[in-house]
Amino acid sequence: MSRNGVKASESVSSTNKDVRMGRPKIRGVDIMRDPILNKGMAFTLPERQILGIHGLLPPALLDQDQQVYQAMQNFYRWSNDLDRYIFMMGLQDRCEKLFYRVVTENIDLMMPVIYTPTVGLACQKFGMVFRKPR
C-alpha cells in the first residue's frame, strides 16, 4: 500500500485507464491554456466535444489559413514595431503553431519585429512589455 491507502497497482491501472480508452489526460481549459496544444478556433466540433472545450470557443470554425489572415490583419493594425512585438509574443503564448506559421509565411516582415532591432527596444522597456513568464 502507498501512503494514501491506495495499492500501487490500483493507481497505475487508473492512470492507464484514460490512455486505453483513447481519452487525452489534459482536458478543458487546460488545453486552451497550453500554447503547444491550442489550435484556437481550428478545433473541429468532434475535437471540441472529446477534449471538453465545447463552449469555451466561439461556435465558428476557422482553419489555420483563416487564422493566419486574421493574425496578419491584427499585426497591420499596430502602428509601431514594439506594439507589433507585444502582439506577436501574445500570439506565441496562446498558440505556438499559429505563431510559427505566421512568422514563416511572412519572414521578411516578421524578423525585424521579433528579432533585432525591436527586441533591443523591448529589453529596454521590459517593465512595460512583460506579460507572462516563458
From TrEMBL:
Descriptive protein name: Malic enzyme N-terminal domain-containing protein
Source taxon at top rank: Eukaryota
MF GO annotations: malate dehydrogenase (decarboxylating) (NADP+) activity
A Pfam match: malic
Domain Malic enzyme N-terminal: 92-134
Any one of the GO CC terms: mitochondrion
GO biological process: malate metabolic process
InterPro entries: Aminoacid_DH-like_N_sf, Malic_N_dom
